[in-house]
Structures are given as structure tokens and as C-alpha cells.
What does this fold into?
Amino acid sequence: MQRTKHIRYPVVFLSLAAGVILFLILNVCIGSVKIPAADILASIGGKEVEQSRILWDIRMPRAMAAMILGGALGLSGYLLQTFFHNPIASPFVLGISSGAKMTVSLVMVFLMGRRFPVTSAMMIFAAFVGAMISMGFVLLMSRRIEQMSLLVVSGIMIGYICSAITELVVTFASDAEIVNLHNWSRGSFSGITWENVAVMAWVVAVTFIAVFLMTKPLSAYQLGEGYAKNMGVNIRLLRVLLVVLSSILSGCIVAFAGPISFVGIAVPHLVKSALNTAKPILMIPACFLGGSIFCLFCDLLARTMFAPTELGISTVTAIFGAPVVLWVMVQRKKERTA
Amino acid sequence: MSTYYFQTENMTVGYEKRPLIERITIGVEKGEIVTLIGPNGAGKSTVLKSIARQLALLGGTVWLDGRDVNAMSGTELSRNMAVVLTEKLRTELMTCEDVVATGRYPYTGRFGILSETDRMAVAEAMELVQVTYLRDQDFTRISDGQRQRVMLARCLCQEPEILILDEPTSYLDIKYKLEFLSILQEMRRKKKLTVIMSLHELELAVRVSDKILCIDGSRVDRFGAPEKVFTPGYLTRLFSITSGSYDEASESMELEPVKGEPKVFVIGGGGTGKQVYRRLQRQAVPFAAGILFPNDLDYPAAKALASRIIETGSFEPITEDKLQEARQVLDCCSQVICCKKEFGTLEQANRLLLEYAVRQRKEIVAEE
It folds into this structure.
């Protein structure tokens, strides 16, 4: 057992890291214009190549965004699953993404409509506020109801309410704005600039470090609150931190790429079964890497499957993510009956 | 300031500001084992949770070694106090060794990585509770009893000064119940570990506890040494036993007796009659038991189950009066069960009674 663990962890981490690099390269190479890997290396080396504009202005920031936001999605899913002790919690299921989407669309329509410059920081902030509103609502519900399934139902309901408000806003918005909103709300990594990438990299990096510093109390929290308390964990503070950090992550994702479904649920489970442990110290970095791979892969498909028409990223993540969720549910059932 | 090692001072406990038990003041010396007993829902868990800081106190103070428990930092508390709760430990893909290792939490660094000392402590605790063979098993896939023992190992490797255990023996079989309590005694002797726990098994509580705390739903009813607490008739009152009975002196419990005129006369004594009484109770046959001495092994069961009992003074010869009384009762019975093969010097009257029954042509059943 000890021995297999010693081999398993490095193998999983190395393959995850290799996967991220591989998909980064593929994402940059493949597209309506094919760019050979050698050209990319040359361009990074400072040489002028034919497609350097496509490479530097479009594909690279997009791939970076998919990597960073995908990692953030995986991580936020893991945090929420830990927080609620619920295997299918994720920002999308609990309505947190929809909450963020609602506030972002409000900001887009009201500010952009008035020709007010909207910065990415503002977008993140708006999305964060929306995420916190939904999260607050789910938390209120979770105080009253213990049952996991009902919690998920309440999250879905909140999601519907937020979507309805978003629709309402869209109905009264002008045409140009709707096009903007519509593209964004389907979820997409397109149109991301280097400035965006820099902002999200900062936000996600800081949050990631904060989460990583919480590995020890998180591992205690996993055992249940009673035992965590006895182990000296400040439960209230931990809960607040978890809520804030997962809301920042969800908010950041929604602000830049719109609501993306299923990555948050699927990735932690895939990673968990690969590692064969739920220890936060391993799960946190592994979920990040796993999320990156998942999103890079899905974005690649979204761009190329029906090129030149681009699919919404959620269309692809759902196709690959939903079966994972089903598999998780079946697996759980098996464990219970075993 | 407190004079005891562990003390509660006017501790009021309850949920959501509704006090359940008010003003509990008890003192415990270092190295003592204290057991909480009381009916279901009386508040044993509530008291334990409040002591362990799982529940906010509604009033009063808990002192541990002269310090206010509520003023301790989380780490400090966890180095002094370990708990086993009735709440199940949630685990995912954790081996029993992983679970025990979580007990080392207060001693590990920021990322909770185990040192060599920690690993040794884990292995030692598992060895002590005899769960080493479960080391690599998934915690969710072992039996409730095994899980309880793993939880004790987890507690012990936390190296606490005081243990708070909520019904720690509930899933254990008799072997492990005894072993569990032996470990507690051993820890007490070796490390002066103080234990506060709740037990449902009164016969265990009376053996292992230095002090017993009786809780009856709204107050602490009694607190003291077992011999002071378990006075005759007390438990029947504490638990409001209405069907059946519990005898403190013999620690035996019996079901409801069958009422009515005795149909069977049981001649017993020396432990031979007990099982016959119980069989008759199961068959709903009212019976008389005799002639018994109050210090006889059969006496508590007869007292609880027989609709008529003929008894005489302990260590005294049976008088002619008593024999006469027994004959009269026997006359009304259609059957006589004799559980004895030989009669001692002082119980010759029972032999005479048996001979009388033969003469009266009663149906005689000799119990093997």
C-alpha cells in the first residue's frame, strides 16, 4: 500500500503536468490556420513568423485563459464539494455561476449601454458580488435543510431565478448588447486579451495560494464539524474563507468566460479516483491541473469541431462532464450497497 | 479558581439558548473515570458536547487544570482533550491508519505532514487497541465495532490529558467492551488519563467508574461513587422503569412478572431456579418460588418474577412455620418443578416439601 502510494502520486502529477503542456501546445497549433509547433518555438524565441499575430494576439491568450480558468473551475468545485460535504456541488449546480452571470449582465447592459468603460476588475467584482449573493442564499437554505438532494434543488432554483432576471435584462437591452451578452453567456474563452490573462492570473494565483495554505484545516473539516472542532479548527473562520475563496474563483471564471458547467463537478472526481485519496494537500494542486486539461481539451473541441462555427464551451464540457457525474452517482450507490 | 483537576461551575447546557440542564457543578480528580448515566434523551450527549466545547455553554465555566476551557486556543484544547462522538466520522478514501493519524493534527505543522514521531505514536496507539491489522483497510468498509476501536486509537494518539467519550462501547461485543475499559484503566494507571464518558451498560459503569453522574433530563440527580449512587430502587426511579425491574444489588434485570394465582411451584436455590423462572415467565405461567434465602443466587429473579415467594432469613434454618406456608401454597399448584438433586443441611425443609408434593400426588418435574 505504502509503496504503491509512493509511485502513484508522482506518476499522477507528472502526467497531469505533461497533459497541461501537451494541450497548451495543441491549442495553439490547431485551428483554422495550422501553426507548426516549430514556428511557435521560433516565435517565442523572438523570431518573426508568418502567423505571429494569430499566435500572440488570439491563440496564446485564449489557451492561457482556458488553462487558468479551467484550473480555477476544478478548484472551486473541489472547495464547494468539501464545504457542503456534497459530491455534486459545483458553482454551476449551486446557482453561483448564474448569480454571477446575473450581476455581470446587469453591469454589461447598464454600463456598456451608457458607453461607460467596463474594466476586467469591475467585471470580476460584479461577478464576485453575484456569486456571493447566490452563495449566501444557498447557505441560508443549507442551515434549514440537512438533506443533500434538497440543497442541490435549492441551488438549481436559485440558478433559475437568476437566469430569469438575466433574461429580463436581456429583453430590455438593445440589439448590440444582446449579441455581446449572448456570446458571453454561452460560455466562451474567445476574445480574451493579454490584459485579461494578467488580471485572472493574479486573482487565481493569490486565491490558489490562500487555498493551499488551508490544506490542514480543510483535511480536518472533511472529517465532520464535531471532530474538526476538537482538532482545534476555527470552523466559523474556515467556512467564511471557503465561501469567499470559492466565490472569488467562480466570479473570476464567470467574468471572463461566462458560466461553464460540469467542469467543477467532474474534475475533482476524476482526479480523486486517479489519486485514490481525498487529501487536500494533493487534491488542491491536482484539481487545478485537471481542470486546466479539461478546459483546454474542451476549448480545443469547441473551436475546431464545427469550424468555422464555434461552439459554446458549456456545450462541450457538458458532453464530457455529464457522463462523469452519472458515473460518480452510480459509483456512490455501489459503495453504499457494498 | 478550581480545586479539582476538572470542574464545572454552574455549567448550564442546552441547544439554541434553551437550557436543558442548569447549574451543573461537579469536580473530578486527575486520573478518575467518570460515567454519565441516564435515560435516552436525558442530555448525556449535550453535557459531553458542552464540556468538549462542541456546544456553546449557556452559562457557567468549565475548568481544566485550573484554566477556563473556553479561553483555550483550539490547538491547546486539542492537545489536552480528545473526543469520540456519536456523530460518525466522515471519511473518503481514508485507510484506518489515515484516520488514526488525524489524531496527530495538533502536533503537525502547517501542512499537516507527519513526522517520524507522529508515525510512531500512530503505530503505538493502533497496537494498544489491537487494530494494527486494519491499518490499510478503508475506514468505511470495516464493522461498527472495529470503527469504534479505531476511533479510540485516534483519541489515544492525540496524547490528551482528558478523554470525552460519548457511548464508546455501543457497538462493541462483550470481549471488546471489557478490553476497551481495560485500556482506559491502563491509560489511567500509566498516564493518569482522566475519562468522562457516557455508557448505557450500567453493569460496566458500576465496575469501571470512580464516579457516576446521573442525569434525568432536567438536572443532575446524583453524583458520586457507584456504591453511593446505586442504592436499592434508585435506577428504577431514574430510568422510570415500568415494565420489568432492575435489582441494584445483584445487577440483574428481569422482564414483567406474570400475575395471578401460582399454578406451578418451583423448588430452587443456589442458582438452579433462575432459568426455570424465566422460562415460566416466557410461557406466561404464574408460579410460586420457595423456599429461598434472600442471599441465594436465585432470590433476585424469584423476587422479580414469582407471583408468590416463600423466603426465610439468610443463613438461618427454615422454620416449621415457613414449611407449613410453603405446603399451603403448593397445595394450590398442579405441578411442582424441582431444580435440586441434593439438599444441604440448612435446606432440608425443601426436601421435606418435595416429599410432601409426592405424597399429594402432584405432577413432579425434575429439572436437569
